[in-house]
Amino acid sequence: MTARLGSVASFAQDRGQSRPDAALSSRVRGACGGHPNARFADSPNGNVGADERFGRFSRNISTSCDLSELVTGLPLVNRLRLSFSASLLPALCLCVTASACGDPADNDGPQAATEADAGSESSSGGTSSGGQGSSSGDGSSSGDASSSGDDGSSSGEVEPALPGEIGLDRVTLNQGTGVTIAEAGAFLSLSADAPRLVAGRPMLMRATWSLSEDWVGREVEGRLVLHQPDGSEETLIDTMMVEGEADLEDLGGAFRWSLTSEQMQSGTEIRIEFVDLSAADETPVSSLPPDGGLVQLPIPDATLSMHVVLVPIAYDDGAGCKTVGDTSAATVDAMHDALLQQNPLASLTFEVHEPISVVGPDDNLTEGLMQLVAARTSDGAPPQAFYYGVVDNCDPDPSPTGRAYGIPSDPTAPSAAFDRIAIGVWEGVELTAQTFVHEMGHCQGRYHVFCPDAPSAGADPGYPDHPNGTIIERGYGILDGQLRDASLHDYMTYCPDQWVGAYGWNMTHATQVALAEAYGALEGPPPPGDDVLLGMISPSGYERWIVVPGPAGFAAEVAESTIELRLGGETLTQPGTAHRVADGDDVVVMAALPPGGIEAAELRELRLAAVLR
Question: 326 with 352: CB under 8 angstroms?
Fold first, then answer.
């Protein structure tokens, strides 16, 4: 019988480094010919380098990262129990010896583990051995491995279980930010604030335990049974020496299982079991659900993806600073991984654009933003694409360090395509990646989060009452395999030591779901619309106006608001809208062109008079 987990309302920093547990072996144990004791050896998991796993790229070419490639490189090591379906029988036959697939009646005891198996499991004591007498021609037993002789006692008796009891306690899931799905050995009904799960994205699942007072330390096997929508079933196994309380602050302080992107499907059902390896058999001593049934994970159908175009800025301030923004492999890798680990995505693709030119001082990044708008429109980019410029303005202490064109309240509005444009100053690999994640957050609809040590303007009033802009939930990096402390700050603060929390995760999840539903896998330019007038007005009095192809449906979007412009001695009132840029005081104006259009020379004379509602 299948229960349904309460549904939720509407993924090594230096990945090439191996982790200590990456050298562990896993053992595949399956049912062969109906026999539950057939055992097989498996080779250790290898640690795949970054270049092999991601197909990294050189400058100015495109690449993509499919999380399904991460299976062999995931940092957590599981020991795997498979219940083989008919489709796996050919592979099974390659592994199983004739004796292992023999008549179950001839295999009353556990099969002896292979030498490789015994070696790989020696540290955990997870191997099993057993004696079995052979049969003579007349049917009598020629061996007495099970008999001691005169007194009739058995020399092969299994020692009884050690004192004490263990029970399942808490179960957590983590694809970037944590959510508890079970407490005190019972599944919870998840709240609307719980982090959404993402189909096709790897996930860390962990389980803690409770112990009776008379517990004596011993090895316990934690099993995660996965039942997929196609009817296939497999069991992931983690064995631990349990001597005291579990510790979720330590990655190895609880049972843990790494689910691959393929295993994270809508409709996946689970059961968790603890098996006391000191006991005479493998009957679970604790199970969740307690009745041995299954519970469905709240994994949605949608597989979320994101496409980012990185644009190096060829910058010349006219005073000796001539640079091209750094889009080297190291910088691009860092930006890619930082965004992917902190965003609810199954896949993230990057494309490196040809450099675009910005001439003249642009310390406030206004001209860079306008050139990115022009590049996006001339490229005919699909509406769901994100554009991000990287500029080096030769300032050792730049301010601002980044800026987004806007913060969309409705990501599917026609004009919101321009809000998926931002720019950041190159400040070294790590800070550049951090700024990138922050500015992409604006493009996905996020405002700042207040932090007392570094207050920011326009803080989100809806951010939960977490002290000092912290995330509260424990984070996890699906690429580097590292836990993040719950005291880190949200990446939309201006404070250091940042990560994503449930609130930001769910906001960007909603944006990506809306884009997926509105545009799907649309490729190529959006439907054509009329040309529109775009302006950037700075508090200093600087105004910059350009004419670009507008999105279809723009006129209807702005029909209820108007912009008043002055051109020479004439006043023009046009349908339009205006907003402040993120991370700045500049005002962005978008208006319908007046009849007959505007000449290039006239754009230099155009001024914003008022924003009317």
Answer: no
Question: What's the CA gap between 486 and 294, in Å, rounded?
Answer: 30
Structure-token pair, residue 555:
């006129």
- Rounded-to-5 percentages of helix, strand, coil across the chain: 20, 30, 50
Using alpha carbons, select from 218, 196, 210, 283 the residue that is nearest to residue 245.
Answer: 210
Sole residue written with tokens 């890619």: 336
CA quadruple 412, 365, 447, 437: dihedral sign? positive
What six digits make up the tokens of 123? 């540290």
pLDDT digits (tens, 9 = 90+) for 271-286: 999 999 999 889 999 9
Cα separations in angstroms, 490 against 176, 440, 477, 486: 13, 14, 15, 10
Q: How far apart are the first and last CA of the chain?
A: 58
Per-residue model confidence as pLDDT tens digits over 399-429: 899 999 999 999 998 889 999 999 999 999 9
Q: Is the pLDDT of residue 256 over 80?
A: yes
* Amino acid at the residue 496: P
Which tokens go with 296? 């469905």
Beta bridge partners of 177: 475
Long-range Cβ contact pairs of 146-149 (< 8 A, separation 24 or more): none
57 in Cβ contact with 332 (< 8 Å): yes
Name every residue whose Cβ is closer than 8 Å to that of residue 287 and which is 6 or more positions away in sequence. Answer: 168, 271, 272, 273, 274
Beta bridge partners of 529: none
Asked if 53 and 69 count as a contact pair (C-beta separation under 8 A), the reply is: yes
User: Could you give the CA distance from residue 221 to residue 281 in angstroms, rounded to a whole number?
Assistant: 12
* Identity of the amino acid at 177: T
Please give the full DSSP string across 498-565, using - where no structure is assigned: EE--HHHHHHHHHHHHHHHHHHTT--SPPPEEEEEEEEEE-TTS-EEEEEEEEETTHHHHTTT-EEEE
Full-model pTM: 0.74
How far apart CA 285 and CA 211 sit, in angstroms, is: 12
Count CB neighbours of 333 within 10 A.
21
Contacts of 55 (CB under 8 A, 6+ apart): 63, 64, 65, 69
Return the SS3 of 228: coil
Distance CA 519, CA 384 (A): 7
pLDDT at residue 216 is higher than 80 = yes
Six token digits for residue 86: 């008919």
Task: With both helix axes pointing from N to C terminus, report the angle between 329-341 and 429-443 in degrees, rounded to the nearest 10.
Answer: 50
For the CA atoms of 259, 260, 266, 268, what is the dihedral angle to 10 degrees? Answer: -40
d(CA 448, CA 461): 9
Residue 214, C-beta contacts closer than 8 angstroms, at least 6 positions apart:
163, 164
Q: Identify residue 587 by its one-letter amino acid code.
A: V
Mean pLDDT of 453-458: 80
Structure tokens at 98: 């004739």
What does the block give as tokens for 504? 């930001």
Choice between 566 and 346, residue whose per-residue pLDDT is larger: 346
DSSP letters for 62-96: EEEEEGGGGGGG-SS--EEEEE--GGGHHHHHHH-
